[in-house]
Design goal:
The complex is a heterodimer of chains A (663) and B (290).
Chain A lengths: L3 E6 L11 H9 L4 E7 L5 H13 L4 E6 L2 H15 L6 E5 L1 H5 L6 H18 L8 E4 L4 E4 L3 H11 L5 E4 L14 E2 L4 E2 H14 L3 E4 L2 E9 L2 E8 L14 H5 L5 E2 L8 E2 L2 E2 L11 E2 L5 H5 L4 H5 L12 E7 L1 E4 L3 E3 L16 E3 H8 L20 E8 L15 H15 L4 E6 L9 H10 L4 E4 L2 E7 L2 E8 L5 E7 L1 E6 L1 E3 L3 H8 L26 E3 L9 H19 L3 E4 L4 E3 L15 H5 L5 E7 L5 E8 L9 H5 L5 E3 L4 H9 L2
Helix pairs in contact in A: 1-5, 2-3, 5-18, 6-7, 6-15, 11-12, 12-13
Chain B lengths: L1 E4 L10 H13 L3 E4 L11 H4 L1 H17 L4 E3 L3 H16 L1 H11 L8 E3 L1 H7 L1 H7 L7 E4 L9 H4 L9 H8 L3 E2 L13 H4 L1 H17 L4 E4 L2 H8 L2 H6 L9 E3 H8 L30
Parallel strand pairs in B: 1-2, 1-3, 3-4, 5-6, 5-7, 7-8
Helix pairs in contact in B: 1-14, 3-4, 3-5, 4-5, 6-9
The chains are: A alpha/beta (663), B alpha/beta (290).
Chain lengths: 663, 290
């Protein structure tokens, strides 16, 4: 006969405010097998845990039910306590009285009755629990960082500096990301390139970092500590070892009119190109969509003129498979296209641009060498209007969230404009100024007070063209909601930050959860901000939420520490909640008949075939076997098995049926 | 094709030309307009300023009567009526509390209500039929003016491109006309300020007319009685504020289609306009109205 103890937690007011905990404890005492039932204000606190340990010892308990919050919150805590009390940790079960009962129901008898039911279910289960041992698995101490922007660069460097090798995979031809396109950075106005490019070089030179630019992750299999990553190295069509980055090919390429992505289409590039002069690696790539040779079968000018004979038109994509222990996702963001805004001209006015284009105009490495010139005719704009919140905080036509970086970069843009165009008039339309951060508000005040940027609190309803000039029509809500019209030479939209294209597919490939806006979801918004719900996959930067450079770098270092922490363990322990195929003494060996329906049902390729042989080596029977390293304990094979010869440890058929029968 | 018809006050008063042209076009296209029996005021302008419940209950009462008459679609030619009917339907569908209140005051249960259409939506449904029946191409360059209530707000009307709608432009194209790309498609005309503060209408209308004329429009095409009267009846106030006076006519979309279908100026009520309906002389110009 079992000796089960039931421990009911008040969770402060969270449970006790709705559920009559004393009545639950009293009812629990009447359940068969229960020898001890108590309630306490905070079961997870030190006195609560001590109560549990003492009871195991004094009442000689062999099973424990903690009726408290979700097992996702505190199951590890109470299992450890049970172990310290002297029983197998898997003899401890949790009844979720908070999320499944008190939080979702009104106070009343029915709620308490449900709480009693939830306790009874777990009592019936725990009576049928068997002692289990955690599974130990080795760790491959090599990390994969996806994305070569500032987040990926920082994470890769931090991990590599702890002594573990890193693969840094970037889909574009160079690392650097959005930060390499920026002019100056807030709140210090230091040049983006000057602080970023040394880091890029450091990545390229680091002995423990292997750089995969122009590459993509195709597939990720396995689990924490033991992933298998398939990386596609797209063909650059050049031999990277021979190429010395001289740039002759770019100069001689006859196709020259392709909009340059790095300069946001403000200048042109050739069909063979290095994205920008400071690119890492400084090796060109052939743009297959625009190269004359790939379109017509003729040209090969670059091949003829390359001094090192590095052009390889026959180069194919390469697939590499690597064993990986942990993954850091740092895939970044994109901004909402200007063409989304019908009221601002659908992108049909050349001088209505987004923030990133302005960055290129203001950047010393940009197409104008840092002079602010409007795209339509190259004139210096004498009046410029910035519209903060284009698409952000707009439930109807944009996204409901705040894009976080726009208030600051708009202040920076207006400031840079005033510095570069003396006598120019900059106006910013804003909803609120969100400048929370070290030295941030001071920066915005500086734009207003020292640089004379005019801030108008209100929305812009329309931007239109009248007689060849842009007219910005908005409202000034601080001046009695008066309508204002400004005739401007250029308009800059602070367009909303959105998840990167393909974020959803990537999340699905990696089994990482994501929010409705396709940003990757952290495991806990406060306490586990860099972890995902998939063990061994971590987050850094704007792929999780809109984020500025300081926050991104901090988070990337946080993710790197998590990876380093993981790699510091000699091996990993995993929950033993896995499927097992039954084994019987000869001559049956197993009830498994070897149909392998389970093999096709298993989503994790965890079912293997095992040949049972006699001592002469003759095969007597072929049966299924579960690879404990791969099994995730989903139970699909259990339901598929025709002979009921597979069972799930910790959630056996016997236990689940007992739970159901108890209600 | 049979469709419910809610004339509202304008179509029987200030915008009789809209009603006449609508009926003429409907007849030519074999659309049977079934007037909602014993309809009441939609409550526009004043209703929603005074009492929320009244502003919902009045249009719902109209829709209930239409439903009783077996109509599954109700077309309201006036943009204001359309907007009130559509808004009330939307509120009933999304707020159980409002629904319960309205059911209480109207002393009836509200089931599935007829779908609310504006005139542009109705004509778009038969666009193919219209282009097939064109007997005299409408070869003018026009500015399609939607005003504020015809397509907005998006969550109620369900139109996409609410800041830059194209539905009327497509209809104009279907009868051989050309529409310009301009800035004031959905700007406010001043609506009922036409009566209470005419200067507002003059100021707003002047901006609209200025842009349309600057972009070489030969006429303005509207689908709203208020838009029409503000740009037509109040042209004097508008011209006072313009450097160059303009006399381009303002046509209802039904009149444009009617002209292309070969209907007479009288059938289309063209003679009721304050700004005469004339077009610049062209080889294939439509005959001016006497």
């Amino acid at each position: 006969m079992s000796r089960v103890g039931v421990f009911i937690c008040h969770c402060g007011e969270n449970i006790a405010g709705t559920v009559d905990v004393a009545a639950v404890a009293k009812a629990a005492m009447d359940m068969p097998g229960v020898v001890h039932a108590v309630e306490y204000k905070y079961m997870c606190s030190d006195p609560g845990q001590t109560m549990l340990k003492d009871a195991i010892r004094d009442k000689k308990l062999d099973g424990v039910v903690v009726a408290a919050c979700s097992p996702r919150m505190h199951e590890p805590t109470f299992r450890r306590t049970a172990e310290e009390g002297g029983i197998n940790p898997y003899q401890c079960e949790m009844a979720n009285l908070r999320e499944h009962c008190s939080w979702v129901h009104e106070k009343g008898e029915a709620t308490t009755a449900k709480a009693v039911d939830l306790v009874r279910i777990q009592v019936e289960k725990v009576k049928r629990n068997h002692p289990l041992k955690p599974i130990r698995v080795p760790i491959t101490k090599k990390a994969l960082v996806l994305g070569g922007g500032i987040a990926g660069i920082q994470a890769a460097l931090d991990i590599a500096n702890t002594g573990s090798p890193v693969l840094l995979v970037e889909k574009s031809p160079s690392i650097g990301g959005h930060m390499s396109q920026l002019s100056e950075t807030f709140p210090t106005l230091d040049c983006s390139q000057c602080i970023l490019t040394p880091r890029m070089v450091e990545v390229a030179r680091h002995p423990l970092i292997t750089l995969y630019t122009y590459s993509e992750l195709e597939k990720l299999e396995g689990f924490i500590g033991n992933f298998k990553a398939t990386i596609r190295k797209k063909a650059r069509k050049i031999d990277e070892k021979l190429c010395n980055g001289c740039g002759v090919c770019q100069q001689k390429c006859p196709v020259k009119k392709i909009p340059d992505q790095f300069n946001e289409g403000l200048s042109n590039r050739a069909a063979i190109y290095v994205p920008f002069p400071q690119a890492v690696p400084n090796k060109p790539v052939i743009d297959l969509d625009n190269c004359t040779y790939y379109k017509t079968g003729k040209c090969k000018a670059c091949e003829k003129l390359c001094p090192t004979k590095a052009i390889r038109f026959d180069q194919e994509d390469q697939i590499e498979v690597h064993d990986i222990g942990a993954v850091v996702l740092a895939t970044g963001y994109k901004t909402m296209p200007v063409s989304n805004f019908s009221e601002y001209g659908y992108g049909k006015y050349k001088d209505v641009i987004d923030g990133m284009k302005f960055e290129r105009l203001a950047s010393a490495s940009g197409p104008t060498g840092g002079a602010i010139k409007r795209p339509s005719d190259g004139k210096t704009p004498e009046t410029i209007v910035f519209i903060a919140c284009a698409g952000s905080r707009d439930r109807l036509k944009g996204v409901p969230y705040c894009s976080k970086i726009c208030c600051m970069y708009t202040a920076k843009h207006a400031m840079l404009y005033q510095h570069k165009v003396h006598g120019g008039k900059a106006t910013v339309f804003y909803m609120d100024i969100r400048a929370a951060g070290k030295n941030y508000d001071e920066f915005v005040r500086r734009a207003v007070e020292e640089d004379g940027v005019k801030y108008v609190r209100g929305r812009v309803s329309r931007v239109f063209e009248d007689n060849g000039q842009l007219v910005v029509k908005g409202v000034d809500t601080l001046l009695g909601a008066e309508q204002v019209e400004i005739r401007a030479d250029m308009v800059v939209l602070a367009t909303a930050v959105q998840a990167q294209d393909g974020a959803e597919e990537l999340a699905q490939t990696l089994h990482v959860s994501y929010d409705p806006y396709k940003f990757f979801a952290e495991a806990h918004p406060k306490l586990r901000p860099v972890e995902t719900n998939t063990a061994g996959i971590f987050l850094a930067g704007a792929c999780q939420a809109p984020r500025d450079i300081p926050d991104t770098v901090a988070q990337a270092s946080g993710a790197a520490v998590k990876v380093a922490g993981l790699f510091s363990q000699p091996e990993l322990t995993r929950e033993p909640i896995i499927a097992v195929v039954d084994r019987q003494p000869p001559p049956v060996f197993s009830h498994c008949v070897g149909c392998f329906l389970c093999k096709s049902a298993c989503p994790y390729q965890a079912i293997e075939e095992e040949s049972i042989k006699n001592r002469n080596g003759d095969v007597l029977k072929v049966v299924a076997k579960v690879n404990p390293g791969l099994c995730q304990g989903c139970g699909t094979c259990v339901s598929a098995c025709r002979t009921k010869s597979i069972d799930l440890q910790g959630f056996s058929n016997e236990q689940v049926f007992a739970e159901l029968m108890s209600i | 094709m049979k469709v419910g018809y809610f004339p509202g006050c304008s179509l029987q008063g200030s915008s009789r030309d809209f009603a006449e042209s609508l009926h003429a076009v409907a007849k030519a296209l074999s659309i049977e307009l079934c007037e909602v029996p014993e309809w009441n005021c939609c409550g526009a302008s004043s209703g929603h300023m005074i009492e929320h419940l009244v502003s919902v209950a009045l249009p719902i009462n109209v829709l209930l009567k239409a439903q009783k008459a077996g109509l599954d679609q109700v077309m309201a030619p006036c943009a204001s009526c359309y907007n009130r009917l559509a808004t009330a339907s939307h509120e009933i569908a999304h707020s159980p509390t409002t629904k319960a209140q309205v059911e209480k005051v109207l002393q009836t249960k509200i089931g599935k209500l007829p779908r609310v259409l504006n005139v542009v939506e109705l004509l778009a449904q038969v666009a193919d039929q219209i282009s097939a029946k064109v007997s005299k191409k409408f070869e003018q360059t026009v500015a399609c003016y939607y005003g504020c209530l015809l397509v907005r707000p998006a969550k109620i009307t369900g139109f996409d491109r609410t800041e830059d709608p194209v539905e009327m432009d497509k209809l104009v194209a279907a009868v051989g006309g050309k529409s310009i790309d301009w800035n004031f498609k959905t700007e406010c005309c001043g609506a009922s300020f036409s009566v209470s503060k005419t200067s507002v209408v003059g100021r707003l209308g002047a901006k609209i007319m200025h842009d349309a004329v600057a972009r070489k429009a030969e006429a303005i095409v509207v689908a709203c009685p208020m838009c029409h009267s503000n740009l037509d009846l109040r042209r004097g106030e508008i011209n006072q504020r313009l450097d160059t006076k303009t006399d381009i006519p303002v046509l209802f979309i039904t009149q444009v289609i009617g002209l292309a279908l070969g209907l007479s100026a009288k059938e289309l009520g063209l003679g009721r306009h304050f700004v005469p309906v004339t077009f610049p002389a062209k080889p294939a110009a439509v005959a001016a109205v006497p």
